[in-house]
């Protein structure tokens, strides 16, 4: 693998790790915000059949809280993870239809994720949803562009 691809991939891993830690840290404010337990501790509710107490709050709920109220680091996580998955697909798949389909599926997954967040009343979740829409749309446009360019060359 060349340096032109290795360095950005390494930076994406670094950004993902730092953003994950920062999101987790910012989301730990959930422990002190009793009012949000009912609305944000979704995973804890599923795991413990609706019972949410301070001692059993899931670590995943920290990320939900972070997305809802402080979305900067979750957005960095999402973008860097998407880039890593995109780069791995570019490396493993041959250029052409399979690669375009892979990128399109990745874009659709992001659009579905945005659709799941569309009903959230918090501004942070709306910002996160818009970033998913933007990145997902860009990926689908990229796949369509490459497909049409390939058709015109052939």
Helix-strand blueprint:
Layout: H1 3-27, H2 34-40, H3 42-47, H4 59-69, H5 72-92, H6 97-117, H7 123-153
**Total beta-strand segments:** 0
Question: What distance separates the N and C termini?
Answer: 28 Å
The geometry reads as elongated
Quaternary structure state of the chains depicted: single chain
Largest sheet: none
Fraction of helical residues:
over 70%
Number of separate domains: 2
Q: Mean pLDDT, as a whole number? A: 89
**Beta fraction of the residues?**
under 5%
Radius of gyration: 18 Å
Give the helix tally.
Answer: 7
List the helices and strands in order.
HHHHHHH
- Residue windows where pLDDT falls under 50 for at least 5 positions: none
Give a verbal description of the structure.
With 154 residues, this protein is mostly helical. The protein is 79% helix and 0% strand. The chain is built from 7 helices and no strands. The protein has helices at residues 3-27, 34-40, 42-47, 59-69, 72-92, 97-117, 123-153. Helix 1 packs antiparallel against helix 5. The protein is elongated, with a radius of gyration of 18 Å.
Task: Summarize this structure briefly.
With 154 residues, the protein is mostly helical.
Core attributes:
single chain; 154 residues; mainly alpha; 2 domains; 7 helices; 79% helix
